[in-house]
Amino acid sequence: MLLEMDSITKSYGSVRANHNVNFNLRRGEVHALIGENGAGKTTLMRILYGMESPTSGQIKIEGKPVAFHDPTDAIKHKIGMVHQHFMLFPAFSIAENIVIGGEPKKGIVFNRKQAIEQTIALSEQYGMPVDPKKKVADCSLGMQQRVEILKVLYQGAETIILDEPTGVLTPLEVKELLASIKALTAQGKSFIIISHKLSEIMEVSDRITVLRDGVVTGTVNASDTNEEQLSRMMVGRELIKLKRSERRDGKPVIELNNVSMKGNKTKPLLDSVKLNVHEGEIVGIAGISGNGQSELLQAISGLSSIDEGTIVLQGKNVTGASVKKIRDSGLAHIPEDRYMWGVSKEATVSDNGIMGHLPRMSKRGFLNSKAIRTLVSDWVDQFGIKTGSLHTKAQYLSGGNLQKLIVAREIAQQTPFLIAAEPTRGVDVGAMEIIHGELLKRRDEGTGILLVSSELTEIMKLSDRILVMYEGKVVGELDAATATEEEISLLMAGGKAVGQA
Question: What is the mean pLDDT of residues 30-51?
Fold first, then answer.
């Protein structure tokens, strides 16, 4: 056995993240680690990578006990980790990012030419082509992930840990990543993958270990299981299938007329965008990341100014209005980046939960603490948010649990219009079921929802209409009931739909 984690327990005070966890890895295999948010997956891998110390238990490499005090120790034992949130320097080139920490030198000076040559050789060796001189800031998320993998390969990693590797990738980038993983395992590399995406896990894994509440509920061969069984192992019950009611005609809640945003480059960020969302419908926005979706959401919510066009919310022209005025006019917003736009990491779960709800949580200038506790506690129970207490700082929640808190908070606003941007990013299948159900419930109650997601399956599952964006334009509109993944993907890549001139 290449690697063994025996009886690993990790406690933070009274909170137990892992309990007597046994996990092992064979050379040249892909072993997936799955479970609900807060199940202890990332904690276990942080222990393996030397970022945390176990309360008890032991790690063995090829049968020999080892102790990792920091990631440097793990790297010395040929273990590398690609984190969920990439750790690259945007202003540096790809080559500079890959060799950082082990830079080739000419005397005491950084040898840039040799760094470029080493990067080219590395990318050719592992079949992962990159432009070594290109700045990371100008790379797609898929390319940034490739750089992260090449970086750990440069460090000599034989075992590579991937934490939610496809969370921000397009369908094409996901296929490329899975192909790269298969190619690398054929060369003898071994992978541990943390993921919530069961279809991808089934495609690429040899074995799958399931964690629930910090305890292993089973390890199975991928060839001997299916997504339904894995879901039951993760959440301890059968998942409920979503029921959709018929779409009803309602009046527009948001209308964008020829909205443009110039930006600093030759092509506009938004180019004469026209769209509307009606009461009681979900309009999905599909597109490869970087084609104007973020700018569109920022324009609607007042986070960015537009150069041309108008935005009408609930019959009121809110073009150029402040964020507060737009929200007061009937908008709630699940943001695409939970850390940048969604929470204050230093604030508590309770304080983050009531953001936007303060007017109804106060009387004569005083907050109603009891009402706040009741409200946020109800969300914790309804969405299965795992937290030590309501006084825990947001930064100590897992990404998925933080996402559930934001979704609960914004859906509870009960506004006529809701922006749901990547609403299930980083959440487990049980939480995804709850979030999808709540979005459909709000739709059935008459809310107009603009859904932006990098997951085509999510767009097709929830939407009534699908708009596709490419280079800042809406290049196609499809009926979700008849749209195909191939048709949407073609539009996302700049092609034309069947029957389109």
Answer: 90
Return the half-sphere exposure (C-beta side, CA atoms, 13 A cut-off) of residue 346. 0
Q: What's the whole-number mean pLDDT along residues 377-405? A: 88
Rg (CA), the chain: 24
* Secondary structure of residue 391 in the 3-state scheme: coil
Amino acid type, 79: I
Least Cα distance to 453 among 255, 326, 282 occurs for 282
- Domain edges within the chain: 3-235, 252-330+416-494, 345-414
Q: Which tokens sit at 331?
A: 């908008």
* Identical fold, 3-235 and 252-330+416-494: yes
Instruction: Write the class of the CATH domain 3-235.
Output: alpha beta
Please name which of 305, 308, 296 lies closest in space to residue 254, comparing C-alpha atoms. Answer: 296
| pLDDT per position as a tens digit, 116-162 | 999 999 999 888 889 999 999 888 777 888 898 999 999 999 999 99
CA angle (156, 159, 160) in 5-degree steps: 95
DSSP per residue over 339-352, as a string?
IIII--TTSBHHHH
Could you count the other beta carbons within 10 Å of the beta carbon of residue 498?
A: 8
Q: What is the overall mean pLDDT for the chain?
A: 89
Q: Which CATH class is domain 252-330+416-494?
A: alpha beta
Res 32: pLDDT: 95
For 428, the 3-state DSSP assignment is: coil
Does residue 206 contact residue 31 with C-beta atoms inside 8 Å?
yes
Q: Which two tokens stand for residue 151?
A: 């970086």
Interatomic CA distance for residues 77 and 73, integer angstroms: 7
- Crossing angle of helices 369-383 and 429-444, in 10° steps, is 110
Supply the DSSP symbol for 238: P
Residue 3 phi/psi, 5° resolution?
Answer: -145, 140
Whole-structure pTM value: 0.71
Buried b (16+ CB within 10 A) or exposed e, 42-56: bbbbbbbbbbbebee
Work out the burial of residue 351: count CB atoms within 10 Å of its CB; fewer than 13 is exposed, 13-18 middle, 19 or more buried. Answer: middle
DSSP 136-186: GGGS-HHHHHHHHHHHHHHTT-SEEEEESTTTT--HHHHHHHHHHHHHHHH
What is the C-alpha separation between 21 and 4, in angstroms, rounded?
10
Q: Which residue has the tokens 């929200």?
A: 327
> According to DSSP H, which parts of 66-105 are helical?
71-76, 94-99
